[in-house]
Amino acid sequence: MAIVLAGTSGLIHQLAPGLLWLAVMVLVLSVGALFGLAWALGWARGTDPVADLTFAAAEADSEARLITTAAGALVYANDAFHRLFPAAADHPAPLDAVTQLLVDPDDDTETLTRLLGGAANGISDHAEIAVRVGPDGTEWRRIVAHPLMGEGKRRGLPPTHILWRARDVTAQRELDAIRRREEELLSDFLDYLPAGFLSADAEGFVLYANRTLADWLGVAGGGNALRGRRFADFVVETEAGTVGGTVPDMHGELTLRRHDHTVFPACLVQSERLEDDGTLAYSRSVVLRDVIWRSEGEGTRRELERQLHWLFDEAPVGIVLVDLHGVVTDCNRAFLRLIGRHREAVVGSTFAERLNKEDRGDVAAQLSKVVMGILRAAHLEVRLPAAGEREVVASLYASRMANVDNEVSGLILHFIDTTEQKDLELQFAQSQKMQAVGQLAGGVAHDFNNLLTAMIGFSDLLLERHGPDDPSFADIMQIRQNANRATNLVRQLLAFSRKQTLEPVIMESTEAITDLSHLLRRLIGENIELNIEHGRNLGLMRVDRGQFGQVIINLAVNARDAMARGGALSIRTSAVSVDVPVQRGHELMPPGEYLLIEVTDTGVGIAQENLDHIFEPFFSTKEVGAGTGLGLSTVYGIIHQSGGFIFVDSAPGEGTTFSIYLPRFSRPVETERVPGELVEDSTPAALEAPAEASADDEPVEIDL
């Protein structure tokens, strides 16, 4: 009470005499209010059981509690506050007493003032301050200020009292300081390790990297500058020869590119953290560089190790070492590149896992003979399932390995990739077969055509003798019509064998296809929609007008048969430029300027096993007797005899697209005439024979 009076005495002496009585009254009322509140609390504590329990709970609470007025005057302090602030618990202005204990009076006094002002305006806040304990001790207190609104809350009045809570956080701050020092020390250890360290998520994005790795890669800013970037962006080549999208795909030896585009060899070793469902959570990787072959022996030993390194690790053929149990003990880089696997996935596994299932029995029998000495070595062809859906064909050479006691310790296997060679052999065999069939078909066609010419001639003589009223007239007409159909078959055989006489002209594809549109609509029927789309700047093509029409008609009828329930047939033209050779099956299309004609249907599609045979003569998926089996082979022969290429893309249930590539000409039609061109040839007359063949003989043979 004396402190309160002393604190206000200077103010009283400065007041004007007329206001002296008012100041005295305010002071008296304030002191009376404090005594009244204290008396009310004491009276309630002695008369109200609930109040007694509340005060008992406050006294028993281990957390220090203090109640002051909004101005900071003491109202109540529990036992825990007395223990935590013994010098301030009974002080009329406890915050002033606490200020005297502050280690940093300037900053912490401002902090207490901020808490008091905020609580007086209805805002809760907290802070941690350092106080002196004893002569040399220092402890930390966490102080929280809560406004107590009371009855004035409903009337929008400011709080009248403030609840202060405090607790000792010295031990917690010491633990936090120790943990921070340990984290800084650990970070220093990881950042400056003589090896790179990183962790990446399942997508290959860096979660953490140390400074050493960042310096190696030439990235300024330390490991934090690598976070969020793909580690694959710094990889030039891996042990398997390809750069994968995630860090696990790069396990083993690799080549890294610095930020300045210089490269250096390195080795990556890692472990993985998996989720409960087996998916990759993140990887932990260590990167080593400048790893060299070291030896403490003489120079000859080091030279031998260097030679072994080049003979084994850098050999251009795959080498695998297998023990007597069939387990792979070592392999070189060439073998890993051959099968597209990293080292840890191969070494330690059985060699049979690397072979196609159909080849395992024969390979095991041959290798057993080598181990037992029945064969000195073995050479056989094997198939190796590689990464993805690719299958590698390789020549396997197997021989025995012996230890220092000249006992067989395992096998050494050499692999030479012969996949491309096998593909070339198949292409050559297919070419030879097609050439032989073509020669046979051409020779037979010419002889058969001579016989048909005689049959048609004698039929015409008989028709002159037997008029329409003659009973034999209908039979003679049947003979003549069948001979004409046979003539169309001969024409198809000659087209397949590329021995027919073509009369090519330089023409526009737009005009030729437009002239065919009316005939195509009659051929495909009303339940099939025909769409024709012409490209721009197509150029010109040099083809036989009649044979070109037969190609389009055969493909249209083929599409009609594939859409028995209706659908859409689309014919699109466009100009394309091929910059590099295109390999499609056995065909190799050279670079150049081409006119592309695409014939697409929405039919049932072609099975995968039939795609490689659809252009072969007499191959058909239709019922016996439904066609000649020469429809698509005729198309193939006409396109190739015209200097073009034809490819097919199809899948069951997804329709079929035939793509025709014809060499493109840019010269005007009037400036180019080919000897033997039929100038007066008209499209309807030229297409009369193909139309008859399509209606009667159904030259398209693939049932889509």
List the helices and strands and how they pair.
Blueprint: H1 2-14, H2 17-47, H3 49-60, E1 64-69, E2 74-77, H4 79-84, H5 94-100, H6 105-120, E3 125-133, E4 137-148, E5 161-168, H7 170-191, E6 196-201, E7 206-209, H8 211-216, E8 235-238, E9 252-257, E10 263-274, E11 280-289, H9 299-313, E12 318-323, E13 328-331, H10 333-339, H11 343-346, H12 360-372, E14 377-385, E15 391-402, E16 408-417, H13 419-465, H14 473-497, E17 504-507, H15 509-524, E18 528-533, E19 541-544, H16 545-562, E20 567-578, E21 582-584, E22 587-589, E23 592-601, H17 608-611, H18 631-641, E24 645-650, E25 656-663, H19 683-686, H20 688-696
Parallel strand pairs: 18-20
Antiparallel strand pairs: 1-2, 1-5, 3-4, 4-5, 6-7, 6-11, 8-9, 9-10, 10-11, 12-13, 12-16, 14-15, 15-16, 17-19, 20-23, 21-22, 23-25, 24-25
Written account of the structure:
This protein is an alpha+beta fold. A six-stranded antiparallel beta sheet has the order 7-6-11-10-9-8. A five-stranded antiparallel beta sheet has the order 2-1-5-4-3. Helix 2 (17-47) crosses helix 3 and helix 14 (473-497) packs across helix 18 (631-641). The relative contact order is 0.05. Residues 1-41, 244-248, 292-298 and 669-704 have low confidence and may be disordered.
